[in-house]
Each structure stands twice: as C-alpha cells, then as structure tokens.
Design a protein that fits this description.
Length: 617
C-alpha cells in the first residue's frame, strides 16, 4: 500500500513471509534433488534405496536383516555400497512414485505397483528389462552359499540353472506379457487366503455341540441345522452322520466342510449367549473383501456359467463376456444357483459383527486377536501379526493358539453340495512382493546384485522365515506356521470363473453396493435383479457403453503399442541391445493381434451376427 504523505511504499509482511517460504522450499528441494541424484550418504557411501509398501509386521525387519547381511559382504564394503529401505504407506506410495519417477529422483529399487503410471507398456519406460540377466545363473546360489543340508542334485541345479528357473514359478511373477521380458524380481510367495481359527473357541464350540447332541430332545439351535427336505426344497445344512462325529472327536481339527463351519459358527453364537459374551462373534469380517468368506464361494457359483460365456478364444471369462451373456440370456441372475448363493451369503452375514461393513482391515484383525471372534479370514501377509497378537494379552488366560485351514467346501450330502463340489485351484499362482530396478538408477549393477542376493536360496529362506511368509526360491523351506498357506493345486481352474470386481466400473459399483444391501436384508433380490437389468439396458452405463469402452481401450492400447514400437525401433539404431529386438517383436505381435479392435469386432459378430456394433458418439 502506498504511503500518501511520504510518497513511499511500505513493506507488505505477507510478501516477505512468502519469499522466505519460497527460498526455504528451493533450498530443501535442491538438497533433496542433489541427495537423490548422487545417492550419497553422510559417510560418502553410495546408497541403494529400496522403496515398498509392505508394512506388515516382520517384513521390514526381515528386509533390514538381508540388507545388513549384504552390506557386510567384503566386496560390497570395499565398494562403499550401502542398501537401505524406504517403506511407505500404501495410500501415499503411488503418488510418491508418480512424482519421483517423472522427476528422475525415484529410488534405485521399487515395488513397481500402486502407481497409475506403471501400467502395461509404461513399465518399460521407467524400469529396466532383466531378460538378459535372469537367464544366467544367480551367483549367490553357487555351491559355497547354498545350504549343505540340501540334496546334492538340488544344490548343483541351483548353482547352474538360470536365475528365473530357481524360483518356484519360473519368475512368472516378474514377467510382463506386454513387453515380452522380465521386469520384476519376486521376494515372497503370499499363498492363498485361509481361515484362522481361535483354538480355544474351537474346542469350546465342539464341546457345546457334543453336549447338545446328547440331549433329548435336542435344543432348537441345533435341530434346525439338520438337512431335510420339505415341500420340495432343502431345509437345514448338514446331516448328522459319522463324518460329523469323527470331526467332533478331533478337538483341534477345524471345520472340514461348509456344513461343519455353519454348525461351528452357530455353536459359537449359542456359546456367547449362554456365557453373556455380547462382544463375541463367530467370524470377524469388515469392508476388507479378502477377509469376507462370501467371496470364497462366489467363484464356485460363477464357474457354473463359465463354459457358456467364454467366447473370445482367450482363457477365462471377461467382465464383458459375462454381462453380454447376461443380456443375451446365456445365464440368469434368477437361476437356481444364483438364488442358492444369495441364501448362503445371507446366512454367513448372520455370523458377522453388527455394522461389519464399517470395519477396516486392522479393526477386524484386532477383534480376532483380542478374543472377540472365533474365525478370521485373510492371507499369509497377516499371519505374523495374528500369531503375535494371539499371544500378546497380559492375561495368560486370554492367550490362544491359532489353527489355519482353507475355506471349507460343502460335502456332497450337504446343502449346496450340488453347486460347489470342488475347491478352486491355486495352481496358477504367481510369486509376489516383486521389486524392479529404476531405469535411471546410477547404481544398476549393485541393485541387480542385491536382488540376486535376496532371491538366493539361503537368504530368501531366512527373509521369509523372519517375515513369516512363504519363500519363492526352490529349496528354501517355509516355517511350520506357513505350511497351510502353500497353494492348493487340486480343484477347478480359476479361469472357469468370472468376478463382478473385474467388470466395468458403473456395473461393478452397482453390483457390489446393491448385493451388500441384499445380503443384509435392506433390498430384495428381485429388486436387485431388476436394478441390474435396468442398468445393463442404459446406453452409456450399460452393455452398449461397455462395448464402446472396451473398443476405445483396445484402440488406445494398439496405438500405444505402435508408439512404443516406433520409439524402440529408433533406439535400436543407436544401441546394440538384444532386449530391444525381443521387445519389438513382442509389441509388433501384440499390435497385430489388437489391430485397433478387430478382435473385439470378431467377438461381436460371433455373439450377435450381422447386427452393428453399438457406438456412442
């Protein structure tokens, strides 16, 4: 503001404050950029940083152990190399990577996920292809490093086989089909989802069931569970037979069939009522879908429709195939299997805590380890926290052991046995927790060396022993507590099923939201069907928009492939890199296959004949 009497301008303190903040920001950003680009530590060591979002108990400590072991290797110390980790919460990890990958200041090694930049062919833009390295032996699997307790033939194999072939899935978890190369090095195998059982409640529940069986007449809570047919429709859930008696006799065996699980959960409800344990619920479930038993049985129902829906020649049923089939009448929401699935989902919800959809992952795990639930469902990544939490109570009487078992399927003589007679196979599993090397890292050789070290047989075994996860390297032994998480190789293939979560966002959102209202009794199933079919008929949000969005997506992918192909073709002129040629062949092959959506138009004609492919302007 001008001073009228003096004719001079007075200082505006707001501008002074802004200038100070700007100077501080430039100084701080400059120091960070210099530090990131030089990768120097205070003792002048070269620092190789590893960024990830795995904050589960045990993993960070296990990775820190591996880093300390690596940093103490003579050749690493002599070179002045130090490997450090940068663990970040998953909610900020994606944005962190976006910013630093674009600015060229990203860590040397990163879990290349949870970033909208790292999709499809963009992986090759930011991370280094490892195809020419994974075909060579891992030097840290040499005979002097592997465990002498292994069979001599296995030790020889590890020492001479290609690095990728020393992982249990052939490093499939690090393969990019878009780029025809390996871009990630898996560190752990997370296994499948399992049920965790409170052993104290398991024994109490079985004792209560045996007492009720001996009563005459049996209490109503038990008698209503026995399977019987009335008015042409099954009532109840399981028969009282020798299989049930044998299960009850083994006090520590978790439920082996769906009927036994329902019986056990009902017994826990009765146990809570008799002992005035208002907090106790049979199954701890929240908004975390991986922990909801309903989804363990969803795939088993949807696989019944898979054979008539898979029409595009690609293994598996896509969301588009499922919704188009629904509109054509190839399958129906009003079918008997779907209504039976709804009945099962409504039953399971009665075993969940009140207001379960408002509970997050940490809350449902805490509820289980504090003794407020008999069952908890999750993967092996939560095992370390569950085992520790179950034994951490200050009151010794509240501590308990934990049993692990797969989600039980119905026996052939139980209700739903006709619809879910096989468990879903996990044989097509891929190793997880993959790490990639930043393409702009000045320490590529050391980053690669560390990943070879971490995935070697003895080190990978110890990392996963400390993390209580499953190892990925052949010959690495899992800790006893992880054995039940090993992939199940029997059963029907995952490709025979389809999932609402893989459908277009508008359809997926309505399906998931309305189905939750159905199973909690806030919406009738008939209204659910009516609402879904109405949505499918809408031009923009429904099936017509689905075909259009898939067509645009394929065209965008096809053009992106062509652009990347041109870039690699130009790069191959000045660089003699065999990986470029491999990637070019892969992208050219994919470009021909997608061909601006020609394959989608062929699928349309196969399903709808000469009718024109719907388009929205």
């Amino acid at each position: 503001m001008a001073d009228v009497k003096s004719g001079k301008k007075s200082w505006n303190l707001n501008w002074v404050a802004l200038a100070i903040l700007l100077i501080a920001y430039i100084f701080s950003a400059g120091r960070f950029l210099l530090h990131s680009l030089t990768h120097q530590d205070g003792d002048n060591s070269k620092v190789v940083r590893v960024a990830h979002w795995q904050l589960e108990p045990g993993y960070r400590e296990a990775l820190d152990w591996a880093m300390q072991e690596y940093n103490n290797l003579p050749h690493v110390k002599e070179a002045g190399i130090k490997v450090e980790q940068l663990p970040l919460p998953s909610r900020v990890y994606g944005q962190f990577l976006n910013v630093h990958l674009i600015s060229g200041t990203a860590p040397d090694i990163a879990a290349a996920g949870r970033s909208n930049l790292i999709k499809g062919n963009s992986l090759g833009r930011f991370y280094t292809a490892l195809g020419s390295y994974v075909t060579e032996p891992n030097p840290y699997n040499a005979l002097e490093f592997t465990s002498p307790d292994l069979e001599p033939e296995l030790r020889e194999y590890l020492a001479t086989a290609a690095w990728k072939d020393t992982l249990i899935d052939g490093m499939e978890g690090g393969w990019s089909p878009f780029l025809n190369d390996y871009y990630k090095v898996p560190i752990s195998n997370l296994g499948g989802n399992r049920f965790y059982y409170n052993m104290t409640y398991l024994r109490e529940g079985k004792a209560l069931i045996e007492d009720a069986l001996a009563q005459s007449p049996q209490p109503e809570w038990l008698s209503r569970l026995w399977l019987k047919g009335e008015h042409g429709k099954q009532q109840g859930y399981l028969p009282d037979n020798q299989r049930l008696r044998d299960w009850l006799a083994n006090k520590d065996e978790p439920p082996q069939t769906l009927g036994q699980l329902i019986l056990f959960c009902t017994a826990i409800q009765e146990y809570a009522r008799q002992n005035n344990l208002e907090y106790l619920t049979p199954i701890s479930v929240g908004s975390y879908s991986a922990g909801d038993p309903i989804y363990n049985y969803e795939a088993a129902i949807f696989r019944l429709f898979g054979p008539v829906l898979d029409q595009d020649g690609v293994p598996g049923v896509s969301g588009l195939e499922a919704i188009d089939g629904l509109a054509r009448g190839a399958w129906s929401l009003d079918s008997e299997p779907m209504r039976e699935y709804v009945d099962l989902a409504r039953l399971l919800v009665t075993f969940y805590p009140a207001g379960y959809q408002g509970l997050d992952r940490e809350q449902i795990q805490r509820r289980f380890v504090s003794g407020e639930a008999a069952v908890f469902a999750s993967g092996s990544w939560d095992a370390a926290g569950v085992f520790k939490g179950a034994q951490s109570s200050e009151d010794p009487e509240k501590r308990f052991n934990v049993a692990i078992a797969p989600a039980p399927m119905p026996a052939s003589d139980e209700r739903w046995g006709n619809y879910m007679n096989y468990v879903q196979s996990e044989a097509n599993f891929q190793t997880g927790v993959p790490l990639s090397i930043n393409k702009q890292s000045p320490n590529f050789d050391w980053a690669l060396d560390f990943l070879q070290f971490a995935s070697s047989q003895p080190v990978n075994e110890e990392i996963n022993r400390r993390a209580s996860w499953l190892p990925v390297t052949i010959g690495a032994q899992a800790v006893d507590s992880m054995v039940e998480f090993k992939p199940i190789i029997e059963g029907y293939p995952d490709l025979e099923s389809f999932y609402p979560v893989n459908m277009r966002s508008a359809i997926r959102s309505k399906w998931i939201a309305d189905f939750r209202l159905v199973i909690t009794g806030e919406l009738s199933y008939d209204d659910f069907i009516s609402g879904m079919m109405d949505l499918i008929e809408r031009p923009h949000q429904g099936l017509q928009g689905y075909w259009n969005s898939e067509l645009f997506k394929i065209r965008d992918q096809s053009r992106a492939l062509d652009r990347n192909l041109s870039v690699d073709d130009f790069a191959s002129i000045s660089a003699d890199d065999p990986r470029l040629e491999s990637r070019k062949r892969s992208m050219f092959y994919q470009s021909v296959l997608t061909d601006e959506g020609a394959s989608l138009e062929i699928l349309w004609r196969r399903l709808h004949g000469d009718a024109p492919l719907p388009r929205i302007d």
